[in-house]
Amino acid sequence: MKAILKRELQAYFFSPLGYVVIAVMYFFSAYYFFTYNLYGNTTDTSTLFAMLFSVAMFLAPTLTMRLLSEERRTKTEQTLLTAPVSRLGIVLGKYIAALFIYLLAISGTLVMALVLQYYSQPDWPVVLGNFLGLFLLGASLIAICLFVSAFTESQVMAAVGGFGVCLFLILADALFYVVRNPVLRVLFAQFSFNGRYRGFTMGVIDLYDFCFFVSFAGLFVALTAVALERRRWV
Amino acid sequence: MFSLICAQGLTKRYGDKLALDGACFAIEEGQVVGLLGLNGAGKSTTMNILTGCISATAGTVAIGGYDIATHPRQAKRITGYLPEQPAFYPEMKVRDHLNFVCGLKGLPAVGRKKHIDHICGLVGLEDMLGRMVRNLSKGYRQRLGFAQALVGDPKVIILDEPTVGLDPSQIIEIRRLIKDSGQRATVIVSSHILSEIQAVCDRVIMLQKGRVIADCPTNEMVGRASIRVRVQGEAEVIGAALHKVPGMGSVKQLGQNEPGTWDFALESAGGSDIRPAVFRALAAADLPLLAAHSADISLEEAFLHLTGGAT
Question: How far is CA B25 from CA B4, B130, B161, B203, B303, in A?
């Protein structure tokens, strides 16, 4: 797993992808920071983090689109599948690499909080809670998009599929108000990423929400390993 | 002798298609074995199962005593694999790629450099270590694939069509590598090029429609399928006696080259060795066998003979 993690990290920085993802996140973080904090003259970072929710939704598929699909297309996966590494080890190596790049990308928000610290006194527990929320959101989304990437040879298809799933997760909130079926309403309410994330942006670290994102990430990492394993049997 | 690779009742279905149908074979340590068969015979499926890429629908494969289905990591640790079209990460240098494979195989970081240098020395890649993989020629890519298969000094090396697309000098070089590898490990080579199998393999396993139809030493395969005999007696009597030999495929009367004798070309059915049976049958019929020798047939002829000439 360590070898795969190292290679994936190198691959992110060999191509422009890693730099672009980090740059885009930094750009939007800086834009919202300027608009809401500097221009609005406030140390409350909740709006900044709330706005980054949709940016994370778009960055996750970009980070994961090539991870498994490209290996399949170029047949480099044969090297991995014939190596003494478990399917879960392969998936974890790739997942942690993507998560690390995402962590680097969102770390810009901490720099902005430090800027606030220079001029004023930001509420650090709220900032850190927000940061944890954004990280957990990314961890779940990356796991979901990695799962999508396991089903296609095309990077484009993997990206589009990932975007589709992420968009659906955004829409799930709106659907709650549209559907009348009580079961579906409960389902949309419980699986609302935005709803779960909102708690963090208010500085509330709810164990429920924490477990929701962690279990979602764990479940989809495991499902991706199962999807890889399943291909052996087809 | 200890069987390093043991396949029992190997069966693989792709939907309705039966790619492997209960194939069984055992390969001892230190052998160089050729896996032969027409397209669709089940060679690649067998290799994919041996390397753990896919699972068998039924049957078992043990490598070094480890079942590939239940102990894949242990089995894969002692296996090196060169796929038909070795694929590499283009952004890596040759040394980085081999270092990556060392990591996958779990080799300790200490001593990796020496190991990589040693392997590259064996395959003739010493001067290419700093080169980007995407800039390598087809021949060097094949060598890199070979080097990758040698990482960790595996006990079993599986080579799928190792000389496809190479020029004659590269083919000779790869054959030399296969022979050298046979000194240190058990090697399985799948190839369409029969002369290659004949040149490098001690033993041939022939597959047809997912079944093992022949499994014997290469020289036996080459020499035994057809024999020529010279027998003293009447042509009709000799012919009748030869037709009764168990396992006889065809009996062809060649003519009279010596007074009172007749020459016949005999071919076994299914590739079995019929020489002892021919001797006994002629002795029982009181027909003196004056000469018997293997017809000098190539592996191509033996292959076509066993597979019924199908293409």
Answer: 11, 42, 20, 12, 18
Q: Using the beta-carbon criterion (under 8 Å), do A85 and B104 form an inter-chain contact? A: yes
Structure tokens at A190: 């419980």
Residue B283 contacts residue B203 (beta carbons within 8 Å):
no
| Residues of chain A found within 8 Å of residue B56, distances taken between Cβ atoms | none
Phi and psi dihedrals of A115, rounded to 5?
A: -60, -45
Pairing of strands B186-190, B156-160: parallel
Closest residue of B to A12, CA-based? B91
**Residue B196: which residues within 8 A CB-CB, separation 6 or more?**
B34, B163, B171, B175, B189
Q: What is the H or E stretch that residue B77 is in?
A: helix B72-77
Q: Render pLDDT for B154-194 as a digit per residue (tens, 0 to 9).
A: 999 999 888 877 778 878 888 888 888 888 889 999 877 77
User: Which helix (H) or strand (E) is A126 found in, with range?
Assistant: helix A124-149
Identity (one letter) of the amino acid at B301?
Answer: E
B217 touches chain A (CB under 8 A): no
Contact (CB, 8 A) for B303 and B311: no
Using the beta-carbon criterion (under 8 Å), do B89 and A6 form an inter-chain contact?
A: no
Helix (H) or strand (E) holding A122: none
CA A59 to chain centre: 7
Residue with tokens 């694929």: B87
Residue B78 contacts residue B186 (beta carbons within 8 Å): no
How far does B164 lie from chain A, in Å, by closest CA?
17
CA dihedral B76, B81, B85, B89 (to 10 degrees): 60
For residue B47, what are its two tokens? 């290799």
A63/chain B closest Cα distance in angstroms: 18
Q: Predicted ipTM?
A: 0.85
A111 touching B, CB under 8 A? no
- B46 contacts chain A (CB < 8 A): no
Determine contact, residues B272/B216, Cβ cutoff 8 Å: no
Task: Give B183→chain A minimum CA distance, Å.
Answer: 23
pTM for the structure as a whole: 0.81
